[in-house]
Amino acid sequence: MIELVSESKCVECNLCVSVCPTNVFDRGEHGIPVIARQSDCQTCFMCELYCPADALYVAADAEGPTAVSEALLDEQGLLGGYREKVGWGKGRKPVAEHPYMYELAKRTAIG
Length: 111
Ligand code: SF4
Ligand code: SF4
What we know:
alpha+beta; two-stranded antiparallel sheet; iron; metal-binding; 4Fe4S_Fe_S_CS
């Protein structure tokens, strides 16, 4: 579920507002979007994927809100963390291309 918009990182592009399939965000009065309908979030991660500033955090738990602290998320590299793992953003590669993932796939292959 969408949990956080970082006001310090947001560049006010409103891409998250545009890509959200369930209209969770409202355009903010001062440019930074607000999470207006959190319970409508489908945990699809689209907003986090498209955010060019890694300013969003979507928690994997889809059932309800999770208490989060921006300072802790930032420290743990979790702001925009899904986008980073998928390899979106300049100079990034998807985690799936890491040699470890190939080895893991070989080890867990059936047959
Ligand atoms: S995770 Fe998906 S449904 Fe939830 S706010 Fe982001 S784009 Fe909207
Ligand atoms: S996509 Fe990211 S940078 Fe753009 S408005 Fe949304 S939170 Fe801010």
